[in-house]
Prior knowledge:
Helix content is 41%, strand content 27%. It is α/β, with parallel strands linked by helices.
Amino acid sequence: MAGTTLMLEGxxxxxxxPDLAETLRSVLTGSDSVIRLEAQRVKSVDGCFLQLLLSxxxxxxxxxxxxxxxxxxxxxxEAARLLGISKTLKLEDEAK
Length: 96
């Protein structure tokens, strides 16, 4: 399981979710079950993006895959914390 790294940056909202969802579908239909998300340049997130992450988490759990974070930015950490989804998104340890 070598994994795939995706760079996330800027505003992650309903405008970018369709393209990102398609990219994730492509990765998941390949042989990768490890997805690394580099998120240090994330400026803001919205509910659509967080729903996509929750869906990704469920999908990876179903195929015994995993999601790894590389330097998630504070807007992402804060949004996940406020909604109580940090643990589900594997962001719990990143916030410390």
